[in-house]
Every structure is written in C-alpha cells, then in structure tokens.
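User: Okay, second chain of the day. Same drill as before: sequence in, structure tokens out.
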Amino acid sequence: MESLRGGLVVSCQAYPGEPMRTPDTMCRVAQAAARGGAVGIRAQGLDDVAAIRAAVDLPLIGLWKDGDDDVFITPTLEHALAVARAGAHVVALDGTSRPRPDGRTLAETITAVHEQTTALVMADCSTFDEGLAAAAAGADLVGTTLAGYTAYTVKGDGPDIDLVGELARALDVPVVAEGRIHSPAQAAAAITAGAHAVVVGTAITHPTTITGWFADAVNGANSVDKDNA
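Assistant: Same drill. Structure tokens below.
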C-alpha cells in the first residue's frame, strides 16, 4: 500500500478482438510501464494477472471483467478469489451500490477475500456515497474508476477531480484516482486533490485510442485548411 503512495499505476488492458489482446503483449506493456516509472500495474484477466505477476516486480491490482450485466468488474466472490489466486496483490471489484450477480453484499465479498486470501481489495466506485459505503464495508482502497460509467452518474471529458478530493477528505483509507485521466497535468491534479495514487490506462497503453486522438486532430486541421483555401 505504502509503495503506491503518490505514484502512477498503469492499467495494462486491451479490449477483446484487438491485436494486443494477449497476455504476452500485456505483460510486455507492463514491463515497459515499469521501466517508465510506474509504481504499480493494473491488469485484467487471470492469464494476464499471472503473467505480469511473474515478470514484473511491482504491486499488481488485478480484476476480471466478465458478463453483460451492469456489474462486470470482478462481479462475484468466485471471480475475486480467482484473481487473488492468480497472483494479484490487490483485487479490484465493482464497489457500486448495484446488486451483485451472486447475491452477496459488497461487505460479504470483501470479508471473504480477506479471510480466504492475503490480497487487499480495491472498490471501484462511481459516487461519494458509494465510496463511503465501500470503505465501511472493509475496502482497503477506494477508486473513482466508475464515476461517469453508471446510469446515475454523468461522464465528463476528463477525470472527476472533485470526487477524488471529496473522498480523500472524508476517508481514512487510500483513494485512488482512475477514469479518463488523459494527460500528465490531470494526473498531477488528482494527486494535488488528495489521491493516494493515480491509475492511467488508455492514454498510455491503448494505441488505437491514442491514434484516434491524433487522427481526429489532424483531420480537423485539414478541414480548416480546406475551408480557408
């Protein structure tokens, strides 16, 4: 936990069907992130977690995205235990107020992970109240990961820095800023707001999206030039 303080955690994930969607590729991305100064890695899928744990000597936040329901980030206790056993130091799971597929409460799930493994638990939340509830349920870390990604929250262009600050002031457990952090300045703003650590994924590890940002900017500039011609 302490080794993450004030640092950058890099989320090494690729979407299904993409060229980079292999454990070996994600492992290499994680190794590159470690060389660049990351203090931790966040990874999705049991094979990815196992591969990265074996190759990268950094704290590893693991998760398992599964299912088509609203709750799909490590949705059940069985998923959480599998992630821990695959090698994750921290199990990230849905920490929202929505019903979990296995019928367990968030507190029941967190307690079972603590009792049956040595892993810590990070609750991915979307609101201030969810963050408070997750900490009360026993979460070791609270993340703003799902802010803007639930039906009852609004998705902004950038990270929800206000939520980071509110949770950091209210909670005794570490708050992790995550979600739509697309620039070094935004990452620094999250730390200034009180985040224990910052997770950045897309802006570092998703070439398809990054290429799209540049392509859109170039195409936009071309359109302006043509209009002025």
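Residues 207-228 form the longest helix (22 residues).

User: Thanks, on to the next one.
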